Amino acid sequence: MPEEVNADFTYRERVYPRMGTFFVVVLFIAMISVAYGAAINMYTGLAIFTIGVIGMFFGLWFSSPVIAIIGKQGTKFLTVAQATIPLELISHPRILNADELVAIRRGQIGITAFVTIRGNLPSVAVTVTDPDDPHQLWVMSSRRSKVLCECLESAPFDAS
Is the pTM of this model over 0.90? Predict the structure, then answer.
């Protein structure tokens, strides 16, 4: 993976979970905190709630994948979570419709695809032109899928 020091970010997005996910987890932590608070004492419940909520925010923050288009030393890379590929090796970025996304989730399309999907967010798919790459399709969720697609379309693609 290219180092991000002195890198030029054309696009960068951290794909957070939806607010409903945060809400459900906070409710679960509150339920546990009330149970411990009733069994032991109120201060134990408050401590568990505080530590749990802080831990939840850090956990959901750091587990959220980052999508970035990074320019480094004359070459641009697409980075999704921990995977990186030069932009010259991808082509045909497109926003998936709901039917295509369901088919990918079920494994009917792109069974070997590299998939980073979050909930029902819009997703972008790109085709990998490298014949040696085991993942010929990359699918990633993005809250700004139109902007991501535009950034990928403006990249220098392999003509194959």
Answer: no
